[in-house]
Specification:
It is a single chain. By secondary structure, the chain is α/β, with parallel strands linked by helices. It has one domain (about 1-220): Carbon-nitrogen hydrolase (Nitrilase/N-carbamoyl-D-aminoacid amidohydrolase, 4-Layer Sandwich). Helix content is about 25%, strand content about 30%. The chain has helices at about 10-15, 40-45, 50-60, 130-140, 155-165, 220; strands at about 1-5, 25-30, 35-40, 65-70, 75-85, 85-95, 110-115, 115-120, 145, 170-175, 180, 190, 195-200. Strand 5 (about 75-85) and strand 6 (about 85-95) form a beta hairpin. The longest helix has 13 residues, at about 155-165. About 40% of the residues are buried.
Length: about 230
């Protein structure tokens, strides 16, 4: 799977540099490449960013996962717009909101089945919650893609490595000015760059895990014996 990461600039600048793109399978855009989208205006045709994104995906014959803020009736979400070959597949919202940010929690997680593969989408700070990666992997995601904003701590890298290792799936992030990729061994590539083309072999590794259970609950159960 050939993934092109775009970490800065705008949609207009990206369209203006199409000659630099070698028809990727997946185009992953960090937060900020798309402006804030009013989804009602998009649906009514008053704003055409999703239409332009679909046209770009059709021209490149690829899937695009683009991080952005979305607004519906003054409710603000951190989201990812997913299109493939001219079609809007859906909009995934961040489900977990940390502290006071002005965002509202979105609902549900989704794996997008595309010709490039099954793409599990983690939006922004949902990366910090291990159950998100586990749910998407159990739903047969072949790779986890995370559009992110500005990285201000080591936390994203730590959680990416843990998610990749514990779930046996590659995790890819396009953040503001930076690309990060974690493989199944928990090893990390982190590069400060505006654009990166990366050819990734899709491998899903399910670790053989055993845990000692016999006797673990004996003390607890004995407290309830009559």
């Amino acid at each position: 799977m050939n993934i092109t990461f775009v970490t800065q600039g705008s949609l207009d600048e990206l369209i203006g540099h199409l000659n630099k793109l070698r028809a990727p399978d997946v185009l992953l855009l960090a937060e900020g490449v798309l402006p804030e989208l009013d989804l009602l205006k998009e649906a009514e045709g008053e704003s055409g960013f999703v239409v332009r994104l679909c046209a770009l995906s059709e021209q490149l014959e690829c899937a695009i996962v683009a991080g952005c803020d979305t607004r519906v009736c003054d409710i603000l979400h951190k989201s990812a717009v997913v299109v493939d070959r001219g079609r809007l597949l859906g909009v995934s919202d961040m489900a977990h909101v940390l502290d006071e940010t002005g965002y509202s929690s979105g609902g549900g997680f989704r794996v997008y089945d595309t010709p490039a593969g099954k793409l599990g989408v983690i939006v922004g700070e949902d990366l910090f919650f291990p159950e998100v990666a586990r749910i998407l992997t159990l739903c047969d995601a072949e790779v986890l893609l995370c559009p992110f904003g500005k990285i201000s701590s080591p936390m994203p890298q730590v959680m990416m490595r843990a998610a990749a290792f514990s779930n046996g799936v590659n995790v890819c992030m396009a953040a503001a000015g930076c690309v990060q990729i974690a493989d199944l061994k928990g090893e990390m590539i982190a590069l400060p760059t505006a654009m990166l083309e990366f050819n990734m072999e899709i491998i899903k590794d399910f670790h053989l895990i055993s845990a000692r259970r016999r006797g673990c609950y004996r003390e607890i159960y004995s407290a309830f014996e009559c």
